[in-house]
Amino acid sequence: MIQQWMSLLGLANRARKLISGEELVVKEVRSGKAKLVILACDASSNTEKKITDKCLYYQVPLKKVENRFLLGQAIGKDARVTVAVLDEGFARKLQTLLD
Q: Where does the record locate the signal sequence feature (predicted)?
């Protein structure tokens, strides 16, 4: 099951419907463009709190994945702690896969 969300995330990335990096994710959540935020379980407690609080406040769904290496691998980059999905369709499908 793990592979499915990873390939979908990779697809979203290639479609340029994805943003990664803590600051950029927070910015997209604030602007209302983020439809889903994915956070690695091994994020620092500081980062985790910041992202979780922002998502709660702006009512953006938040999903967690095992670790930053898996998340980075899914989008063909180095370790990533958090990514935001900017497309409603991708976000909905990813949410069902990550439930």
A: none
